[in-house]
Design a protein that fits this description.
With 254 residues, this protein is of the alpha/beta class. The protein has one domain: Hexapeptide repeat proteins (UDP N-Acetylglucosamine Acyltransferase, domain 1), CATH 2.160.10. The protein contains 2 helices and 25 strands. It has a 7-stranded parallel sheet, with no helix packed on it. The chain has a 6-stranded parallel sheet with strand order 4-7-10-13-18-21, with no helix packed on it. A 6-stranded mixed sheet has the order 12-17-20-23-24-25, with no helix packed on it. A hairpin with a 4-residue loop joins strand 23 and strand 24. Belongs to the transferase hexapeptide repeat family.
Length: 254
Amino acid sequence: MPKSKNTFSSWRGRVAQRAVHAAWAWVQRTGSVSAENPGGLRFGSIGEATRLAFPLGTVFGEPWIHLGSHCIIAEQVTLTAGLMPDLDLGPDPILRIGDGVVLGRGSHVIADTTVTIGSDCYFGPYVYVTSTNHSYDDPHEPIGRQWPRMEPVEIGPGCWIGTGAVILPGARIGRNVVVAAGAVVRGTVPDHAVVAGAPARVVRRWTPDDGWQPPLRTPAPVPLPDGITPEQLRALAELDEEGAEQLARLEADG
């Protein structure tokens, strides 16, 4: 026979669950970092409307980290400047992040030397960017004890970096580049390219003379006309829904 349901226990469980969710939402709001509420962090600069979500990842060397405006730094993102905390890294910024950058959950940006991320770059979750790599020159010494090599990293504006990509020391990524999920990037990537693989290679590129080569398999999206308002967009969406309903009725009748 089915067990009788304890209505009182079920009610208490739902109340407790809602209370836990509400409390966690409050913790997330309160623990997030912004220019207005920096907590214990003292970044070199942090722009308007930029927010680091709570819980934070590892953050140190923040006086040498400069964040632009309107950035979204998701949960558990690591941002570091220098090999370890409490170092004097000199007068210049080490990690520069432009305006409108989105760093996906669990991503790491490790700037032991200069790392620059241009404006309007979007990173998927668990992207790893580093200006430092282990060396293994001495075959008799454990790799972790050998002094690492450092090279600056530069990611141009407007890039999309896919989930799980790795950007290695010395990488120079151009403007509006797509880095496929899981790609491992080193060296120079030209503007308006798509790279994939490990090591990453250019699989598609746009030039003014030839357009996209190889050609895109799907048509490019049509840009919105200048001056269109949100109200007009909503009206168009409603018309599309009505048209779809009318088409479904006609197919059913026919």
